[in-house]
Design goal:
single chain; about 325 residues; mainly beta; five-stranded antiparallel beta sheet; four-stranded antiparallel beta sheet; 26 strands; about 5% helix
Length: about 325
């Protein structure tokens, strides 16, 4: 039988490698510490939904959120840069989010007055009328602070309660994804002309409830809502590294007019605009795309939203023309 040989260096190496397999002994190499850059609203009572923005919320995923040491009642990691959190009790203080790597703290404190800055607002309703003989009409409401619960990893967010005049029945939500700036409901069959009432953390006007600035109309069959358009613009910059980049933006700051928008980067050829590259705007409206190494005039364009594809129609957008020598 061959004699047993000792290899101290190898034994140490095996022991070291084995220790990495024990849970909790070492953070994965890809883990990143989260950061908090801002949050909105900055104040509000229990039930207020706060939008927290930052970085590395999914790398690894954030597993806890608290305000001044008080855990929020619910939270949803929407993306690597955004979390929705529902305030619990009279929580106030620094906001903390934690993942397996580290804990991030907000630079400023959240405060807990009622209503603080958490009152819902309504800036746009589309369509402006429906119901009556048009049962099943879906109305989309745009504004701020429109959720009454952030939802969780396993459940959808919950939009505020919506009632149409005469306010005897709460409208059913349409089932489409909702966010703090957009929700959709089905007009109840008994609706009549009047303002729409929306409630979030309570049903007190001026606190957790708001009325639309205009009346919703239950129309006759030939009634047509006026078209309200939202203009959209695109910026373009061509840099020496042959990269075109810019931002899609909407004049009312409604992100659906800027998020995930198809963008065409075009070059002027023989008097015509020729598409040389296509890309899609990020959730924040920015885009970046390499282009061919050719001199000339360039622009970026974004299309009109087809009717019915967006709560607010957006006009065709064309950037200023840039020349690359």
């Amino acid at each position: 039988m061959a004699p047993f040989k000792r290899y101290p260096g190898r034994v140490a190496a095996v022991a070291s490698a084995a220790s990495l397999l024990v849970p909790g002994l070492q953070t994965p190499a890809s883990a990143a510490s989260p950061t908090i850059s801002s949050f909105s609203p900055t104040s509000g009572p229990a039930g207020c939904v706060v939008v927290i923005t930052g970085t590395n919320f999914k790398d690894p995923i954030v597993t806890s959120v608290d305000i001044g040491g008080t855990p929020v009642s619910a939270f949803k990691v929407v993306s690597g840069t955004e979390i929705w959190a529902t305030v619990a009790g009279d929580a106030s203080g620094t906001i903390h989010v934690a993942n397996a790597s580290a804990t991030a703290s907000s630079l400023t404190d959240f405060t807990n007055p009622n209503p603080g800055g958490c009152s819902p607002t309504i800036t746009f309703v589309t369509p402006c009328g429906g119901g009556g003989g048009q049962r099943g009409t879906v109305v989309t409401i745009l504004g701020t602070n429109l959720l009454k619960s952030s939802g969780t990893a396993a459940s959808a967010s919950v939009g505020g309660d919506v009632r149409f005049a005469p306010y005897t029945e709460t409208a059913t939500h349409a089932g489409t994804p909702e966010n703090p700036r957009l929700l959709s409901v089905v007009v109840p069959p008994d609706a009549v002309d009047g303002q729409i009432r929306l409630s979030t953390f309570n049903d007190v006007l001026g606190e957790g409830a708001v009325l639309t600035p205009v009346h919703f109309i239950v129309p006759p069959p030939d009634f047509i809502c006026p078209v309200i358009e939202t203009s959209r613009s695109v910026t373009l910059r061509v840099v020496r590294s042959l990269v075109a980049r810019g931002v899609v933006s909407a004049d009312d700051e409604f992100t659906a007019c800027a998020s995930s928008v198809p963008v065409k980067i075009q070059r002027r050829v023989a008097g015509e605009w020729e598409t040389v590259r296509t890309t899609t705007a990020s959730p924040t409206g920015s885009y970046r795309r390499r282009i061919p190494d050719k001199a000339g005039k360039y622009r970026a364009t974004a299309p009109t939203f087809p009717s019915g594809s967006s709560p607010t129609p957006c006009l065709r957008a064309i950037s200023p023309v840039r020349t690359r020598s």
